[in-house]
Amino acid sequence: MSNIIIKKLTEVPLKQRQQFFQNHWGNTKMVISSGTYNLDALPGFVLLKDNKIVALITYVNQRFEVEIISLDSVIENQGYGTQLINYLERYVKNQGAKIITLVTTNDNLTALKFYQKRGYRIVAIFPDAVDRARQTKPEIPLKSDAGIPIHDELKLVKTLI
Predict the structure, then answer these.
(1) Cα(57)–Cα(129) distance, rounded to whole angstroms?
(2) DSSP conformational letter for 78
(3) Backbone Cα Rg of the chain
(4) DSSP assignment, residue 149?
């Protein structure tokens, strides 16, 4: 039987976190319309299976509003991302948060489906946001693996009841 636990990101060794971000994002820097973030310096949670990171979520907390900065799962469709987002929602709600926001790119159909199935709503589109982000992080790809040009960000919001 495998052992699955959720820990605060800071409870995982820095080197292990940095390797995870390197594998998923190319480095620890995230550039989105709300700012530039050092992922391994953000609060977050990891889902560990047999002591290996299988999912990781980072966020910023602005009292009543929490913004998810990254959510990654090593293996999709296993429920790891869902477990983490549910955990985060409960955690920040207990801390007084009223809404959770996030941005994703126009090509990320998997994320759009994932979040909308969990009650997140598209509330804004930021045309050319990714084009601007490339000025700071040029390694952001021009197209997705599916060949969709990556230009825009979509903002999604969920109200915590």
Answers:
(1) 22
(2) S
(3) 15
(4) B
As a whole number of angstroms, the distance between CA 38 and CA 41 comes to 6
Whole-model pTM: value is: 0.90
Q: And the tokens for 26?
A: 């190319």
Tallying the residues shown for the chain, one arrives at 161
Tokens of 98: 């009223």
Token pair of 14, please? 């820095």
Q: How far apart are CA 42 and CA 44, in angstroms?
A: 6
Alpha helices in 26-156 (DSSP H): 80-94, 109-117, 129-136
pLDDT in tens, 40-79: 889 999 999 988 899 999 999 988 999 999 999 988 888 8
d(C-alpha 126, C-alpha 128), whole Å: 6
CA 125 from centroid of its chain's CA atoms: 18
Other CB atoms within 10 Å distance of the CB of residue 4:
14
C-alpha 145/C-alpha 41 separation (Å) is: 29
